[in-house]
Amino acid sequence: MVGSKLFVRRRDGRIETRLNEFARTVVRDAFANVLAAERDSHHEWHVSLSGPIDPSLDHDNPVSMLARQNETSTNAELAQLTVDEQYLTDTEAWAWLTSLQVALRSTAQAKGLLSDEQLAACDEDLLEYVQMLQQFLFQLADCF
Amino acid sequence: MALTKPLHTTSTEGAVLVDDAVETQKPWNVIVWNDPVTPMSVVVVIFKRIFGYSNNKCTQLMMAVHHEGRALVWSGARDRAESYCVKLQVAGLQSTIELDN
Hints:
The complex is a heterodimer of chains A (144) and B (101). Chain A is mainly α. Chain A has helices at residues 21-39, 46-49, 62-81, 90-110, 116-121, 124-141; strands at 7-9, 15-17, 87-88. In chain A, a hairpin with a 5-residue loop joins strand 1 (7-9) and strand 2 (15-17). Chain B has helices at residues 40-51, 55-68, 78-90, and strands at residues 28-33, 70-76, 95-99. In chain B, helix 1 packs across helix 2.
């Protein structure tokens, strides 16, 4: 994957996805996990999806919590629906970016990667997965 | 055709209670917290998309998050602060709100 662009903004405004089957599988799993975590309170990513909005309160505003849940699910669903597409609209690409970022940060939180030192000391497979998500995000962000 | 009944609304002059004690509410701050994995360029793109800030301002805020561990990205009414906080969380950034001190 290194050395070639994974996402390219075309002149017609769409974003071309140049992912091989392996990369697309990684992305597909990330989207599926975000959706699963939103629906399953026992999923290891669920905690990072339900962080406090106002930490000074025992409970956040239920309306805001519902809005967060809906928007996260909507993005992940749209990303999942378009995971095999070669060309994405701006809205679809934004859904990819937010869902990948949620997956990245949820992974870090679930695996205890809360500092640069912990990230540097984590096992090789986990570091490779994190770096892969970072690479997707870095290149996708470049299209906006 | 002479009008015998008034067509205008009744004046409330003199009936309005004037409260001289104007209470200024403290603003609510939206805070974004640093994490070790999020690419810097992603933070900039998210700030631009959610707040519509300039590229320079987004970059400055991102650098503040990176170097100081947190940055105040928006300040104002509580309901809007909460809405922005939710948008940032949906975009995968760690964000909270707090009352301005």
